[in-house]
Structure formats: structure tokens, C-alpha cells
Design goal:
Layout lengths: L17 H14 L1 H35 L5 H39 L9 H36 L4 H22 L2 H7 L4 H14 L1 H39 L9 H41 L1 H11 L2
């Protein structure tokens, strides 16, 4: 019985076409599907359990507010806004964890002779925690930029409507233009040993020089991530719509308050949340290989490594 030779290790730093970036991204995902699923369950499943609980609570409060069951518009608004805010925090936290996890696994794959075979979370944890800290810094910086933009809009609202409209238009155009190269910031900052400011400047420099490439990668892999999230979220959406219709048609039946219905929506909510984060794994991996492509193209990382290895002989 012949044993097929192992596949060659994926080389990260290569200049690739768009189709090659897609192929190598999915090659990495296929080769390391088991550790990706295993570690994502460790990291994301507890968050998904919590997120589904708040999603269920949000929907009950929201439907109650639409029906005017509580009788207080202020209380309805506060409850809906509160649960929605918690869901946003959960989503941001999930994005941080997924970015840190994918980049940590990529870094470990590159450095480790056995790739990700037999990798234990204890071995991955120090790098993962470091990357979580970096991803959190990026998230806080992004949040600060959005808050600053909102403050500018609020201040200019005191002048005139035309000033406000013009400022909002310029802000939207500017944020869209900057958001594309900013997508390169996460893999660059997590992979390179650079201070925050230097990494941000480098990502903007590389990002604007390849704006179209990054936009295309973000668009295609973002669509794929949304498709995966939509497929896993379809059962929850369908059950929720059916429950709402029956609740409106037969208010006395108490379908939405029944134990079996709430348990079903909770489980489906966990699946939906986990599927959304699996989609982020795909898009994060795609952007990572876009970063590898740009760095090799601009810096010649492979050539530098070969020279260093040759000098050590």
C-alpha cells in the first residue's frame, strides 16, 4: 500500500494574483479545518451561548415594544437599546477573538515544523492573548475614530443645514476611502513587531497603494462570509418569523412564551452566531493572504529569509 507524500507547506509570502489568493486561502482552511473548528469552539462557543441569550431577550422586548405591551414608550426604548448595545459588544468581542485566533494559527503554522498537527491550546495561548490585546487596541481606536466623527457632525449641526450635509458627505467619502486600507491594519499589526502608530502608518501606506486589490478581496471574501452567516442564520430567522406570525394571529396561544419555542430559538441562535463567526474566519484569512502578498511585493520577505539562511550555512 503506497502512502502519498504530504502536501508541501503553504508559503505565505508570495506575490499572487487574485485567484491565487482565493485558492491559497481555501487551501489553508481545508488543510487546517479540524484545528480551526476545534479552537474556534473553545474560544467562540461560550460567547455564542451568551449572545444567543441576549438575542432572545432582545427579540422578546422588541416584539413587546411593537405591541405596546409594557405601556411605557421610554421603558421600551431603554430596554431595546440596552439589549441591542449588549449584542453590539458581543459582536465586537467575537470579531476580536476571531482575528486573534486566525492570525495566531497562521503564525504558528508558519513557525512550526509540524504545522498545526497536534497543537494544544496551551501552546497557542500566549500568542493568542498577545494578539487579542493588539486586536482590542485596533477596535478601541476604530471606536474612537467613529466617536470623533460623530462629535464633529454634532458640533457642525449648530451652524447650518448645508454645512452639516456637506460635512456628513465628506466624512462618509473619507471613511469609505480610509476603511479599505485600514482593513490591512489588523493582519499587519498582529504579524509584525511594530508599535501601534508605525503599524498604522505602514498599513495606510501599503493600503492606499493597493486600494483596488484590498477592496476586491474585502468584497469577495465579505460576500462569502455573509453567505455562510446567512445559511446558518436562516433557520433562526424562519422560526422567529413563524412564531411572530402565530403570535399575532393567536395572541392567547402564548407560542413565543412557551418553553419549547424559546429553547428552539436559543439553540438556533447559537448556531447562527457561530456560523457568523465562521464566516469571519474566511474573510480574516483572505485579508491575511492579501497582506502576505503586499509585504512580499514591497519588501521581498522571502529573498531576505533566503539570504539569512544562506549566511547561517
Amino acid at each position: 500500500m503506497s502512502i502519498s507524500p504530504p502536501k508541501p507547506k503553504i508559503q505565505f509570502y508570495r506575490v499572487r494574483t487574485f485567484s491565487e489568493k482565493m485558492n491559497v486561502t481555501f487551501d489553508f482552511l481545508r488543510e487546517n479545518l479540524k484545528p480551526l473548528l476545534k479552537f474556534s469552539l473553545y474560544v467562540i462557543l461560550p460567547l455564542c451561548l451568551l449572545q444567543s441569550f441576549f438575542m432572545d431577550s432582545f427579540m422578546r422586548v422588541y416584539m413587546s415594544a411593537l405591541g405596546g405591551a409594557s405601556g411605557s414608550a421610554a421603558a421600551d426604548f431603554t430596554s431595546v437599546a440596552g439589549y441591542y448595545g449588549v449584542l453590539i459588544v458581543c459582536t465586537l468581542l467575537g470579531s476580536i477573538l476571531i482575528s486573534a485566533l486566525v492570525c495566531s494559527l497562521l503564525q504558528t503554522y508558519e513557525r512550526r515544523d509540524r504545522r498545526l498537527q497536534g497543537l494544544a491550546f496551551a501552546e497557542l495561548k500566549p500568542l493568542f492573548m498577545t494578539n487579542c490585546t493588539k486586536a482590542l487596541q485596533i477596535m478601541l481606536f476604530s471606536f474612537g475614530v467613529v466617536i470623533a466623527a460623530a462629535i464633529v457632525v454634532a458640533l457642525l449641526a449648530w451652524f447650518s443645514l448645508w454645512t452639516l450635509v456637506g460635512t456628513i458627505f465628506l466624512l462618509i467619502v473619507g471613511l469609505v476611502a480610509v476603511a479599505v486600507p485600514f482593513a490591512l491594519f489588523t493582519p499587519l499589526y498582529l504579524f509584525e513587531d511594530l508599535p501601534f502608530g508605525a503599524a498604522l502608518r505602514k498599513s495606510m501606506k501599503y493600503g492606499f497603494s493597493a486600494w483596488g486589490e484590498i477592496f476586491l478581496v474585502s468584497l469577495v471574501f465579505g460576500l462569502l462570509a455573509n453567505i455562510l452567516g446567512g445559511v446558518t442564520g436562516a433557520p433562526w430567522t424562519l422560526v422567529t418569523i413563524i412564531g411572530s406570525v402565530f403570535s399575532i394571529a393567536s395572541p392567547d396561544a402564548g407560542i413565543e412564551s412557551s418553553v419549547w419555542y424559546r429553547f428552539l430559538t436559543y439553540i438556533l441562535g447559537v448556531i447562527m452566531a457561530y456560523g457568523t463567526y465562521l464566516g469571519l474566519i474566511v474573510s480574516t484569512g483572505g485579508m491575511a493572504f492579501q497582506y502576505f502578498h503586499l509585504r512580499e511585493k514591497r519588501e521581498g520577505v522571502t529573498m531576505q529569509t533566503d539570504i539569512v539562511n544562506f549566511d547561517r550555512l
